[in-house]
Amino acid sequence: MKEHFLDRLYGEYQAYRASLLSCPNFEVFDRCDEIDAVVNFYEILSEKAEGMSDHELQTLLKRRNLLMELYELWLKRDDSAYGEMKMHVDSEISNMTKGISGK
Questions:
Q1: Which of 44, 54, 86, 93 could be joined to 1 by an S-S link, Cβ 3.0–4.6 Å?
Q2: Is there a contact between 41 and 68 (Cβ–Cβ < 8 Å)?
Q3: Is the separation of the CB atoms in 84 and 41 below 8 Å?
Q4: Torsion sign across C-alpha atoms 38, 42, 44, 45
Q5: pLDDT tier at 1 (50, 70, 90 boundaries)?
Q6: pTM > 0.90
């Protein structure tokens, strides 16, 4: 069952990659966050498959496009990464400018 799941997942991933290759460069650039997420989902699922039960694998095999489904669900989650990045930038600007007199 694991081998079948991994083969199917790999095929889905290869189809996704092939679809990207037909896109103009600007579209690939615009989709870089999506690409990163899909690659990560593929790698995570590939690793997790080793420890998954046949029931779990069978359930996932019923999904039509698992990688994109996971991506769409990911987009609906609240993401704190931007907020954390903004706080980091604010903090570092403060650290970098301490002791510098305004000229």
A1: 54
A2: no
A3: no
A4: positive
A5: very high
A6: no
The amino acid that residue 72 corresponds to is E
Rounded to whole angstroms, the Cα distance separating 25 from 4 reads 33
The tokens for 20 are 């990207």
CA distance 51 to 40: 18
Q: How many residues does the chain have?
A: 103
Instruction: Give the separation between CA 57 and CA 4, rounded to whole angstroms.
Output: 9
Q: Which amino acid is at 83?
A: G
Four-point Cα dihedral 79, 82, 83, 87, nearest 10? 150
pLDDT at site 101 = 59
